[in-house]
Each structure stands twice: as structure tokens, then as C-alpha cells.
Hints:
The chain is an alpha/beta fold. It has 2 domains: 11-252, TIM Barrel, CATH 3.20.20.70; 260-323, no CATH class. It contains 15 helices and 11 strands. Strands 3-4-6-7-8-9-10-11 form an 8-stranded parallel β-barrel. The chain has a two-stranded antiparallel ribbon with strand order 1-2. A hairpin with a 2-residue loop joins β1 and β2. The longest helix is centred in the C-terminal third of the chain and has 15 residues, at 260-274.
Amino acid sequence: MSLSPFLSPPLTLRGVTFDPPLFLAPMAEISHSAFRRLVADFGGAGGLFTEMLSAKMLLNEEMHRSPWTKRRACEGRVIYQLLVVDTKKLPEILEHLAPLAPDGLDLNSSCPAPTIRAMGGGADLFESPERMCGILRVLRAQFAGPLTVKIRLGIETDGWRARLGERLRMLRGEGVDGLTLHPRFAGDKLKREPRHELYAELAAEAQLPLIANGDILDPHYIHSRAAAFAPAAGLMLGRIAAARPWVFAQWRDPALVVDHAAVWQRFCDYVEEDFVAERALGRVKVFTAYFSCNFMFGHNFRMSVQSAPTIAAARERAANFFATGPALTRHINLCGL
């Protein structure tokens, strides 16, 4: 395996090539247009996922202006992840989305959040094969591009493995082109170690390109688990990208050096451009919770920004923190995020 695995070969789905097969994960309150723009500044990702978008709410969005749906040419390949609970208005929703020319659509069948499951989406959809099948049929009939599905392992009860196998065969049968697997159970959230050792048997059973997801930090993480990741066709990085938006560029260039203060301030610029003021501050605070993990005493930075009443105040407090020349952590710790 090369020093930087998964830089090649590219992954091609329905004629759309993702090169390299490294993907930004869909993350609530993170993977919006401003953050994708920041990641794209550094480059290195083959595809950027939006955050999970409520399909029905899309009908109320100005698609080319909304910070959740707008895309810029600099972003490259953008895959729109959808929260879908039924087929009502789904053809109309897809028609409304079409002018954005998605490079792929992804059906979220993995989110374990109670509010999402109560709606019948995410992990709850995974447990409703007939409903899931109906949704996939409409998506496949209406969308000619790459169609992927993000899943977990299901619910950890007797028969979970057989149910998972049934879902994998169903996905293949309904014309799904690729599968993103976060190998934890729905109830695990982010607490237990992901079961990366399952990729081989599940990729063979699904007979679909598998994108591996879950606690992936850097090439060293992959090297230390080389046999487990060998069956994967690509990798999806989530929280580490929220902390280090340059992680994809650093995958190719491990010696890459960044100006952390400039990156944080640039993110604020992008957020203020895309969001109204009251929403912009919230996005800065969410981002800072991750970004602060780069520093030895990052909790001071995080707390000062969290209590800021305005973005101007947050910028001033951040400038004061960066002026101290804060020491960087050698190993990033994302526990609790």
C-alpha cells in the first residue's frame, strides 16, 4: 500500500469519476456551502457531501442562494444527501433540485439521532425495507446520476446480520451504485469502536463499491488497519475534516503547513457571506468546537467563542487567542464531538 492510500485508483459511478476517492462526510451544521468552500480551497477531496437535507424542505429553498443547497464551481463534485421518509412529492422535489446538477444523490439511512428517527428517517428508514425500497425506486427512476446510500449496521438485536444482508441485496436490486458504510450499530452513536473488519464480507455480499466511514483520521490510521480497509473503494472523512479542513490536501502532501488563524478567519468570511447574521454566529461556534481541537489549550479558545454575542466579538477573541502563539496538539482528540 502506498504512503497515502486511496489517492488512486479513482472511483467511477455511472460515468461520474471521483478522483481521488476521498469524500467529505455529510455533517449536520458543518457541511454547508461555506464549509465546503473552505475545504475546496485546499483541495484533495474527490467529492463533497452536503449536510443531510430534508427533501420536503427543499421545495421552500431558493436553490442557488440557500447556504444549504448552493454550490460553487470551486467545490468540484458535490453529492446531495437527502432525508426522505416517503415518496410524497418526491418527483417534484427532485425536479426542484435538478437545476443544481448534483454529481450524485445519497439517501441517508444511517442517522441515529432520535429526532430524525422519530420522523421515520435515517436509521429508522433502514428498518423499514418496503418504505426504503419505494423511495429508492423513485430516486432511481427520476435521477440518472450516481445514487448512493449511507447506512450503519442496523439495530443490535438477534438477527441483525441477516437483516443487514437483506438490505444489501435490496440496495443492489434497486439500482444503487455505491454504499457508504459506517460500521457501528444505530444505538452506538460514536461511542464504540467501528467494526472496520466487516468491510470484506459486506462488500462481497453487497457487490457494490463500498465507501468506508467512521473515525478515519489520516493515512496512518488506514495503514494500521490495511487488511480491513483493502476491500473499500473509497473513504469518507467527517469530524477530522471539521477540525482540519485541509486534511484532504494533507493526505497527498503530509508536509503541508497551514496558518490556523487565517483559516479560522477565512471561515468566518465565508459564513458571513452565505448566512444571515443570527445563523452565521451559530455556524462559527459549531465549527470552532472542532477547530479548537488543534490546540493544546483549545478549550479556552472554544469557550471564548461560544460566549461571544456577535461574530465581531468572536473574531476579536479569536485574534487575541492566536496572538499568544498557541501550541498545536500532536494528536487530535475528537472525543465528545
